[in-house]
Specification:
This protein has about 130 residues and is α+β, with helices and mostly antiparallel strands. The protein contains three helices and three strands. The protein has a three-stranded antiparallel beta sheet with strand order 2-1-3, with helices on one face. It is elongated, with a radius of gyration of 28 Å.
């Protein structure tokens, strides 16, 4: 006679022989428990595409700032450096403003996230 296995109340005890399922009714909950735990496993390295996006810090005319705005890296392959990113960010701001019902703010400056300021590069504090 088969009995149901409750994975939470009665965890399987370690044995020297491989785990055997007594009947089909007992194997379904046990397999669900085993495969349910496998869902939380880490991904293989290299499955996330690197360099898919470039991050920008955006400063607006009113002085507000948004950090780590994502721009697809494929837009920045041209000789125009970061100018295509400005257009992409303006378009993103238009869409956000349309959904929120507020007017879009004009962009004052953009720079890549993590890039150093030009002003602070050569400045000395004596």
């Amino acid at each position: 006679m088969c009995r149901e296995i409750s994975a939470v109340a009665n965890p399987p005890q370690p044995t020297s022989k491989p785990f055997e399922f007594g009947c089909a009714a007992a194997s379904v909950p046990a397999l669900a428990f085993i495969f349910g735990r496998m869902r939380n496993m880490a991904k293989k390295p290299g499955t996330n595409l690197k360099n898919e996006f470039v991050f920008f810090d955006v400063t607006y005319e009113d002085g507000s700032q948004r950090s780590n705005r994502r721009v697809p890296a494929e837009l920045l392959d041209s000789l125009e450096k970061d100018e295509p990113a400005r257009g992409f960010l303006i378009e993103q701001d238009r869409e956000i403003a349309e959904k929120s019902g507020r007017p879009p703010l004009p962009i004052k400056a953009i720079r890549r996230a993590g890039a150093k300021n030009r002003e602070s590069r050569g400045a000395r504090t004596d």
